[in-house]
């Protein structure tokens, strides 16, 4: 079979198969007068990912039990995917969800119908807090090519603790029209019309005290079992229930008790031996687990047996406590008594996958003889010499048509093997990075530098392959908080972020290699913020949150001095031409500040602008002095041509969330402007070739990617090319087709 059959070198080489081309619709407003703003129909744009390769938590993987070569994958913030066996890559399924549906990019659960291979169900919703919207169910009859949607009256938690448990969605084994949905706070829901409508089921464990609720649903023959995350497994507080008739639920007696079996995480049924395997932990994970166990239930007689491979709580090789829980479990559909389970949150000894061929009597750790090849995803070395087997392993699956094809998800990738020894990422097509900053250099090998959440900075010498240098190192950052290039000296770049070995660094070769600043302000370790370099690279300004002053260096980070007049918490913006000029917007007072002495002092300019908006962005137009653009989210877009002394509202757009510049159109003297915002009533991606007098929408309804308000920039060397940062779908880049 070809299911996920990929070379052991990995699967990250991008091709034109990633491209998606759509003819854009003509939208209302295109005939408006130019002075009031207008929107025109655009030529088709081709959208692709700038390949990084995974970079986020894989919360679930599901092989179809009766269709060879068909599998699905879910993430906590980046949507769901289908494996395409013809092209050997994952296909994103919910990129059509737009700005207002950002919360639905967190996938809580997925389900397939064994009797109908084309049917797919997803439950969506990232957060259960009051500020997040309710969840939704998507149902498809063509494997996710098209969808029907039902909005729910409850909230789901696809990016909350417990997101690696499940699956919480199940097609009833007796009736394909009946579905079960486990929720965090609202018990069990049931649908009898294939997910079109939902009603509360008569489930005995409601309400949820901790917000975990139903953690898993699994079919055992014609019986459905449900895990409950708010109990401890005792007789009066059971954590596993079942129904044989789809109406009445009863506790499953005799199950394990104690902290090691407090929360049922995942379950898998061996139909050959009629045994149900359940993994447990003392917390839902992926964070916070320190104890756990594995048990099996012989469903023919109700006998429970503990089959835990290694009990948590011993001493690790470094002398620390070896604490962890258990996460994934999958059985071999072809070999009775053969199964795999995974540890989770095991930091001292590193998580592993255990395999048993005798029903859990003995186990082998697959990590112990594993050969990991991340040559096509070098960032997985995390700035060191070799990769680790993984962490946060809760998604675990075993191909029903290939007993040696095992895949498991981590906090950054999906590893797979075809021989139980050699492992490589099986992640082609999946891009889950949350993008914080984007820089497109005017010269040099790379057209893009990206600043990311969790995986620092990457130097994209190619857009179609994962960066060969991996994460920027010396030092390694987790999340990048600042990235700035000197326009008059583009080989000079600085970055800032969260790291254990320093929080700031500079590069003299355009971002290929880095060196840490010789010193850094004391506050940098606890509050690294945005950083900027002057146009010529001679001065650095670094911001450290609203509780701390800004700092300045004129010797490449050898020494730093406090800038008392710099507005606390503001992001420094350098003038792209004049190295003596810097700008900053103080959102607490709605005031723009400017410096004309190289950042030594700042004075107030325009005031009375919007206050309290943490998502503002101040940008300077390239090649011009004092030409500033201020995106004030729902308050719109403003422009200054006098260095921030005064601002005029741009009448052509309703809202502006992020703004960037690229190469000018042929015959135009001003750079192309790219914006995520709204010309009338909905947010989209736009380009203007005439200084924001008119706008052209360049994305389409099938390419929206949820929330896209963090970063956008054009390419200064390629007209029409735009790089767009998403919150869970990586860097999207578009070219006129």
UniProtKB/TrEMBL annotation:
What are the recorded Gene Ontology BP terms? Answer: polysaccharide catabolic process; xyloglucan metabolic process
Q: One MF term from GO for this chain?
A: hydrolase activity, acting on glycosyl bonds
Family recorded in the similarity comment: Belongs to the glycosyl hydrolase 74 family.
Read off the InterPro entries from this record: TAT_signal, WD40/YVTN_repeat-like_dom_sf, Xyloglucanase_GH74
This protein's name: Carbohydrate-binding protein
Q: Which organism is it from?
A: Streptomyces capitiformicae
Keywords for this entry? Answer: Carbohydrate metabolism, Glycosidase, Hydrolase, Polysaccharide degradation, Signal
Would you say which domain of life the source belongs to?
A: Bacteria
């Amino acid at each position: 079979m070809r299911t996920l059959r990929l070379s052991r070198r990995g699967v990250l080489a991008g091709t034109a198969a990633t491209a998606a081309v759509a003819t854009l619709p003509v939208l209302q407003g295109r005939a408006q007068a130019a002075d009031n703003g207008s929107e025109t129909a655009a030529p088709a744009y081709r959208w692709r990912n700038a390949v990084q390769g995974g970079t986020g938590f894989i919360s679930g993987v599901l092989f179809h039990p009766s269709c060879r070569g068909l599998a699905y994958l879910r993430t906590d913030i980046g949507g769901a995917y289908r494996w395409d066996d013809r092209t050997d890559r994952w296909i994103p399924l919910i990129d059509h969800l737009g700005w207002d549906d950002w919360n639905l990019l967190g996938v809580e659960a997925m389900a397939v119908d064994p009797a109908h291979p084309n049917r797919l169900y997803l439950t969506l919703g990232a957060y259960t807090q009051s500020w997040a919207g309710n969840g939704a169910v998507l149902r498809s009859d063509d494997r996710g090519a098209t969808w029907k949607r039902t909005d729910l009256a409850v909230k789901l938690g696809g990016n909350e603790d417990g997101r690696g448990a499940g699956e919480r969605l199940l097609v009833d084994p007796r009736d394909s029209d009946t579905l079960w949905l486990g929720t965090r706070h609202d018990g069990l829901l049931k649908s009898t019309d294939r997910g079109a409508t939902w009603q509360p089921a008569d489930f005995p464990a409601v309400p949820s005290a901790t917000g975990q609720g139903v953690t898993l649903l699994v079919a055992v023959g014609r019986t459905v079992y449900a895990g409950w995350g708010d109990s401890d497994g005792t007789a009066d507080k059971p954590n596993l229930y079942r129904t044989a008739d789809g109406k009445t639920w009863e506790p499953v007696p005799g199950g394990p008790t104690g902290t090691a079996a407090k929360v049922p995480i995942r379950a898998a049924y061996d139909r050959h031996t009629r045994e149900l395997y359940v993994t447990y932990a003392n917390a839902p994970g992926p964070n916070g687990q320190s104890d756990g166990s594995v048990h099996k239930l012989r469903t023919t007689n109700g006998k429970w047996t503990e089959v835990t491979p290694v009990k948590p709580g011993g001493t690790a090789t470094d002398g620390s406590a070896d604490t962890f829980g258990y996460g994934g479990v999958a059985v071999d559909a072809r070999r009775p008594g053969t199964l795999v389970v995974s540890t989770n949150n095991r930091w001292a000894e590193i998580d592993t996958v255990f395999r048993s061929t005798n029903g859990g009597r003995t186990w082998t750790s697959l990590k112990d003889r594993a050969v990991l090849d991340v040559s096509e995803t070098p960032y997985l070395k995390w700035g060191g010499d070799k990769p680790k087997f993984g962490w946060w392993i809760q998604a675990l699956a075993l191909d029903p048509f290939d007993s040696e094809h095992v895949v498991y998800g981590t906090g950054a990738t999906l590893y797979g093997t075809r021989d139980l020894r050699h492992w490589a990422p099986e992640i082609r097509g999946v891009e889950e990075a949350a993008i914080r900053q984007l820089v497109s250099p005017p010269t040099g090998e790379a057209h893009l530098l990206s600043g990311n959440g969790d995986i620092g900075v990457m130097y994209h010498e190619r857009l179609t392959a994962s960066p060969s240098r991996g994460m920027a190192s010396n030092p390694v950052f987790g999340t990048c908080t600042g990235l700035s290039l000197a326009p008059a000296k583009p080989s000079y770049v600085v970055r800032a972020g969260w790291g254990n070995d320093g929080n700031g660094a500079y590069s003299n070769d355009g971002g290929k290699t880095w060196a840490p600043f010789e010193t850094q302000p004391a506050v940098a370790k606890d509050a690294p913020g945005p950083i900027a370099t002057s146009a010529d690279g001679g001065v650095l300004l670094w911001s450290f949150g609203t509780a701390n002053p800004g700092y300045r260096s004129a010797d490449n980070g050898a020494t730093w001095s406090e800038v008392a007049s710099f507005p606390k918490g503001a992001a420094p913006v350098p003038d792209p031409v004049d190295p003596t000029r810097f700008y900053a917007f103080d959102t607490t007072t709605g005031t723009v500040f400017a410096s004309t002495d190289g950042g030594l002092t700042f004075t107030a300019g325009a005031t009375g602008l919007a206050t309290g908006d943490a998502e503002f962005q101040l940008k300077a137009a390239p090649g011009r002095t004092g030409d500033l653009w201020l995106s004030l989210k729902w308050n719109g877009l403003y422009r200054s041509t006098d260095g921030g002394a005064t601002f005029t509202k741009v009448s052509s757009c309703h809202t502006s969330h992020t703004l960037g510049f690229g190469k000018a159109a042929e015959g135009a003297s001003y750079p192309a402007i790219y914006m995520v915002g709204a010309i009338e009533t909905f947010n989209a991606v736009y380009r203007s070739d005439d200084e924001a007098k008119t706008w052209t929408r360049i994305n389409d309804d099938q390419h929206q990617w949820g929330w896209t308000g963090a970063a956008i920039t054009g390419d200064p060397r390629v007209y029409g090319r735009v790089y767009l940062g998403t919150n869970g779908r990586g860097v999207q880049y578009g070219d006129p087709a």
